[in-house]
TrEMBL record:
It holds the Pfam family Serpin. The lineage of its organism: Eukaryota, Metazoa, Ecdysozoa, Arthropoda, Crustacea. One of its GO terms (molecular function) is serine-type endopeptidase inhibitor activity. Transmembrane segments: none annotated. Keywords: Protease inhibitor, Serine protease inhibitor. Residues 3-100 form the Serpin domain. This is Serpin domain-containing protein.
Length: 118
C-alpha cells in the first residue's frame, strides 16, 4: 500500500466572503471598545487550512490572522529580514508572551501597506 504524500494549503479571505459577519469593523465607524480605546478597522481576515497526508498519518492544521489599523491611518513600511530576528505577540494585560518565534530565513521580505479607513 503506497500512498502518495501530499499537502494542501490555501488562503481564504474571510472578509471577502462575509464569513465573519463583521462588516462594521471594516470602515471608519468601527467600534471595538472591548479591545482598545483606539479607533481601529479590520483590513484583512485570513484563514489558512492545511491538510497533510502521508503513509502514517493525516494532519489537519489551521491558522487565522486579523490585520487591523488605526482609523485614518495610511502608511507603507518595508521590513527587510536580512538577519535572524525574534517575532513576538505579547499580551500587556497579563504581561505574558502569547507567541514567540525565532525567524532564521535571511531571504524573507515582507511588505505591508495600510490604506484602511481614510
Amino acid at each position: 500500500n503506497n500512498l502518495t504524500k501530499f499537502k494542501v494549503e490555501s488562503d481564504i479571505d474571510l472578509l471577502q466572503f462575509g464569513v465573519l459577519g463583521v462588516e462594521d469593523t471594516v470602515n471608519d465607524e468601527a467600534y471595538l471598545s472591548g479591545l482598545t480605546n483606539l479607533k481601529l478597522c479590520v483590513e484583512r481576515a485570513l484563514f489558512v487550512p492545511i491538510l497533510t497526508i502521508d503513509e502514517k498519518r493525516t494532519t489537519v492544521a489551521s491558522a487565522t490572522a486579523l490585520q487591523a489599523s488605526v482609523s485614518s491611518a495610511s502608511y507603507s513600511k518595508l521590513f527587510k529580514a536580512d538577519h535572524p530576528f525574534v517575532c513576538m505577540i505579547y499580551d500587556r494585560s497579563s504581561n505574558m508572551p502569547l507567541s514567540v518565534r525565532v525567524m532564521m530565513d535571511s531571504t524573507a521580505t515582507s511588505h505591508y501597506t495600510s490604506n484602511c479607513c481614510k
